[in-house]
Design brief:
Elements lengths: L2 H18 L14 E6 L7 E10 L2 E6 L3 E11 L14 E16 L8 E9 L8 E5 L2 E3 L9 E9 L2 E4 L2
Parallel strand pairs: 1-9
Antiparallel strand pairs: 1-5, 2-3, 2-6, 4-5, 6-7, 8-9, 9-10
Length: 170
């Protein structure tokens, strides 16, 4: 192979190698709090005064009285059409607001959360002062890749408490 062939091979190899990096995806710098999220259902929420959760996974347990806050849902307010060309594509500002949904939400923080089964026990008191029945649920946390597999795995554990008991949140 002559000098021209070596030069051509070098240029082609350099272009191919540098081209491989053009498709890298940046991952967001977002952390995740390890814990069990709880939602007290809207129909049951007005009756609940205090809620105590205990979660055990792989022989480690955490428990605490949960600080409950009013739950809400997002309501889409649409987008302003600031396009100059008259098409219906929203080039302008989009907005949303939150609307109370009658639930209460809280979080029991854990040191770590893996994808092995977890046992969650809920107890507490009603607004009339009587104790709530103790309820226990065993389930497997969910693993997902919300930003793609290249950005790492998120593990979440969420439960819903209602008059029938505890169930895993979808």
């Amino acid at each position: 192979m002559g000098k021209a062939g070596v030069l051509l091979a070098t240029i082609t190899t350099t272009a191919l190698i540098s081209g491989c990096h053009a498709f890298e995806t940046a991952c967001p710098a977002i952390g995740q709090v390890s814990g069990v999220a709880v939602t007290v259902a809207a129909g049951y929420s007005p009756q609940v005064k205090t809620l105590h959760l205990k979660a055990c996974q792989d022989g480690k347990c955490e428990e605490d009285t949960i600080h409950l806050v009013p739950g809400s849902v997002s309501v889409d307010l649409g987008c302003a059409d600031d396009s100059k060309d008259g098409d219906s594509r929203p080039d302008g500002t989009c907005s949303a607001t939150s609307k109370p949904d009658g639930t209460q939400r809280g979080l029991l923080e854990l040191g770590t959360l893996g994808d092995s089964p977890i046992d969650v026990t809920a107890s507490g008191s009603y607004t009339n002062g009587k104790p709530m029945p103790t309820r226990t649920l065993r389930f497997e946390p969910k693993a997902s890749y919300p930003f793609g597999e290249q950005c790492g795995r998120f593990v979440s554990a969420s439960v819903v408490l209602d008059a029938a008991g505890l169930r895993q949140d979808r």
